[in-house]
Prior knowledge:
Oligomer: single chain
Mean pLDDT: 75
Largest sheet: 3 strands, antiparallel
Strand content: 5-15%
Helix content: 55-70%
Amino acid sequence: MKFMLTVITGLLLAGAALGGDVYVVTDAQGNRVYTDRPQTLPAERTGIHSNQTDPAKVQARLADEMKQFNADAEAATSQNTKGSDAGNQKDAAAGDRDQRCADARKRYEVLMFKHRIYEIGPDGERRYLDSAEIDAARADAEKAMDEFCGGQ
Length: 152
């Protein structure tokens, strides 16, 4: 049904663009067909009348609208560039702070929920921490998280 309405609307607009009258014809299946050139008679005139559109005027209007659009886009881009230098520095600092906070929080959560914590030695082997070292690592991780997250 939507397709049929789309076709009908397209035909109406096409008929309007050509400046002709629009007719309604019923086909063999009983469907109503809207056209500007009826192939069968009787064809009922719908009473829709339109003027022809001058393609040169439409193209000129479109070119003017595109020039205006491009000018607006260029102005917005230059405005964003001017304001974004200071904003980029603030955003970079905020993004760096957020990343450090996320890393510190992740390290703290890992240390809090793991029971066996190890360090990688210079030879690549694991050295498991004892209870006192685990408690110290958890305290350091909590301190780093508080420092970087600052109450977030």
